[in-house]
Amino acid sequence: MDDLMFLKSGTxxxxxxxEKDGKAVELTDERLVRITKAFVGFxxxxxxxxxxxxxxxxxxxxxxxxxxxxxxKTLCSLGVHVFDCGLSSTxxxxxxxxxxxxxxxxxxxxxxxPMEMNGLKFFTAQGxxxxxxxxxxxxxxxxxxxxxxxxxxxxxxxDNMGRYCSVLREMxxxxxxxxxxxxxxxxxxxxxxxxxxxxxxxxxxxxxELGANTDGSRFLEPDGTFPNHIPNPENKQAMExxxxxxxxxxxxxxxxxxTDCDRAACVDGNACEINRNKLVALASxxxxxxxxxxxIVTDSVTSDGLEEFITxxxxxxxxxxxxxxxxxxDEAIRLENEENKDAPLAIETSGHAAFKxxxxxxxxxxxxxxxxxxxxxxxxxxxxxxxxxxxxxxxKEEKEVRFTIRLAxxxxxxxxxxxxxxxxxxxTDGISVVPVNYEGVRVNFDADxxxxxxxxxxxxxxxxxxxxxxSNIVGGTEKMLRFFKAFIENYDDVDKSKLVx
Length: 501
Known about the structure:
This protein is α/β, with parallel strands linked by helices. It has 13 helices and 22 strands. The chain has helices spanning 29-47, 64-77, 90-100, 131-141, 160-176, 200-207, 236-249, 277-288, 304-313, 325-338, 364-380, 410-426, 476-488; strands at 8-9, 12-16, 53-58, 81-87, 104-108, 117-124, 127-128, 156-157, 190-193, 253-257, 264-267, 273-274, 295-298, 317-320, 345-347, 353-355, 361-362, 397-404, 431-433, 441-445, 452-458, 464-471. Helix 1 (29-47) crosses helix 2 (64-77), helix 1 (29-47) crosses helix 4 and helix 5 (160-176) crosses helix 6. The longest helix is centred in the N-terminal third of the chain and has 19 residues, at 29-47. The mean pLDDT is 96.
C-alpha cells in the first residue's frame, strides 16, 4: 500500500514532478500509471460505461510532456480512445467535452505553483471533479495493481484550442456588433502578459484576428521555468509587469493570465490594476446587465465597498461565501437548484470567475472576453472600462497576515482560536460580529476603533490562520491589528512573526 493522499490539493492532484533543490520527485511515472488506472476505473463507474473518449492537454511546465506521455500511454493501454489536445488552457479542456462530445478531459497543470510542481485536473460534463472524487482516486491508486496491457494505440490529434478560440472570437463579434463586424477591435490597443504560460493563444488567435493592436505584449513564449515572474494575477511582481506594459505601450487596457488561464486580471488605460474587488465589481456589472436582482456569489474576503456597489449601484444581491473557487461555484449552483435563485456569477478575488451562461466554468479568457466587449463599446462612445467601477468605494488601507500553526492537529486548534476571537469581539465595545458569515469570524470596527473590518479564517488547505483587514481611514488597520495582536499573543502554538505593526 502506497499512501498517496499527500498528492491531494483540494480538487486537483499536485506534487513535485521535477527534481529541484533536493526535492524528490513525487509524481513518478509509476505513480502516474496507478493514478491514471484508478481514474479510468472511477470514471467508468461514475458514467456507467466502458468505451471512453478522453481528451488530454497540458500547460507549459517542463515536466508536462513526460506526464502527458505517461498518462496517454496508460489510457491507450486501458482501451480508452485518447485525444491529444497539445498545449492547452484548463478551461479549454472542459470545453472539449462540450464541443467534441468527450466523456472526460484531463489537464496537466499546477496552475501558478513553482516550476518543479505539476499535477492533474479532471473534468466531466458536470464540471471539475470534487475533492471527494480525488480522494477516492488516490485511495484506489495507493493499492497494488496488476500490470497494464501494452498496446500500439496512440492518441488522436484534436484541434481543441482552435475550436475554443473561434467561440471567443464569435462572442466578441456579436457582442461588439461593430460596423466592421469582422474586425470589431480595430483601433483598440490591448497588451497581454502571459507569464510564459499558455496564454499566448489569446493574442495570436483571438485579439490579432479581430484587429486589435497587441504590440507591447509580454512573455508569450511558453517556458516552464517561468523566467520573468510567477504567472499569477495575485502576485505583486506579475501585476507590476502588466502595469508597466500598459504604460510603455500606451495601451487602452492590459490583461494578465495565470499559467493555465483559468484566472485573469486587467489593467485600465491609466495602468491601474483592475484586480480583486475591482475585478469582482466589473464582472458583476457584466453579469447583472440582463439579470436584475441576481445573486453574485463571492469568497469571504470581499470588501464592504463591493457589497454596496453590487447591491446599490447594480441592484444585485451579494452572497459572501467561503474561500476556494470550487466552494464559490458549488454555492452558486446550490442557490440555483435548491433555492431557485438566479446566480449569474460565482467569483473569487483570486481571479477565478464562473458565469452561469458558461457552464459555471472558471475561465480567465472568457472573463477577459466579456470585459473586452465592454471596452470596445465604451471606447466607441468615448469612455473606458474604469468608468464602469468609478463608484466602487475602495478602502484606504488593507492587509493580510498569515499565521502558521505549529501543530500536526492544526485544524481543530485553529477553529478553537477563531471561536475565542469571536467571543472576545462579542463582548468588546466598538466591535460587532457579522451575524451571517460562512467562514471563520468577520467583525466590524466602529470609527473610533479603526473604521473597518477583520476576517479571521482557516486557510483552505494549509496549517494557517489567515487574517484579512480593511479600513476606511488612514491608520485604521494599525488600530485593528493592535487589538488582534493583544489577542493572538496568548497562543504559543501560533507563529506571530509575520504580524508587524
